[in-house]
Design goal:
Layout lengths: L2 H11 L1 E4 L10 E12 L2 E12 L13 E2 L5 H12 L9 E12 L3 H14 L5 E5 L5 H26 L11 H16 L4 H10 L3 H10 L4
Parallel strand pairs: 2-6, 4-5
Antiparallel strand pairs: 1-6, 2-3, 3-5
Length: about 220
């Protein structure tokens, strides 16, 4: 079975039985606990793990190879095909995801019974950031990838509001508004007070933007 058919099959077999009750964090890192259930000859296989997400401070268009870590041997190849089949551009999500599988066990109980037991456990532990996924044994990591994509997209309206409030949307160079504003303020200060040049230089270096502003920075020495 080729990659396209595998992904199509896995996506069709994937069902999110329970979504986290809390949106993914707009700033900083999030940690989502997952339980992946699959049926095998009347028994249930359970995988327990975490998906760790991190949003970079300066938002840029990431290559697909940078987005997923720990999701099997071919995450780059899967990513483009999942993106195409779901009709969502994964790169614009601007997150990085790491999968950490922590426990695998087999239960003689049917999947429905296992699901109900896990949901009760979740209610007593981490109800806001736990998910339960049902899917195929074949390339099961793809099902977890589908979950995190759907989860991130469903959090987007809230994330957009918070990004607007914090002036985090980037320009064509990938520089958030709050960074641009800080740089412009420091340039104005340096034009009036030469001692402010050191602070401006440090800030540009810290943000990895010195080369973009290099010519303008050195012109200040001739004022």
């Amino acid at each position: 079975m080729d990659r396209e058919k595998i992904i199509k099959y896995v996506l069709a077999a994937t069902k999110i039985l329970r979504m986290p009750r809390q949106s993914i964090a707009t700033f900083g890192a999030s940690e989502i606990d997952y339980y992946f259930l699959s049926s095998i000859d009347g028994t249930t296989k359970v995988r327990e793990g975490k998906v760790l997400s991190k949003k970079p401070e300066i938002i840029t268009a990431a290559g697909t190879e940078e987005i997923f870590e720990g999701f099997g041997d071919y995450p780059q190849e899967y990513t483009e095909e999942i993106s195409r089949q779901l009709g969502k551009d994964i790169r614009v999500l601007n997150y990085r995801f790491k999968n950490k599988l922590e426990n695998v066990y087999q239960s003689s109980e049917p999947l429905r019974t296992v699901y109900e037991r896990i949901v009760n456990e979740i209610k007593n532990k981490k109800p806001k950031r736990s998910t339960v996924i049902k899917g195929s044994e074949i390339a099961w990591q793809i099902a977890v990838m589908k979950f995190i994509i759907d989860y991130t997209v469903s959090s987007a309206p809230r994330n957009v509001r918070e990004l607007q409030e914090k002036a985090m949307f980037p320009d064509e160079h990938g520089i958030p508004e709050y960074v641009r504003n800080r740089i412009e303020y420091l340039f104005r200060e340096a034009e009036k007070k030469p001692q402010a040049l050191d602070e401006l230089g440090r800030y540009l270096q810290e943000k990895g933007l010195f080369e973009q502003y290099e010519d303008r920075f050195f012109k200040l020495f001739s004022l």
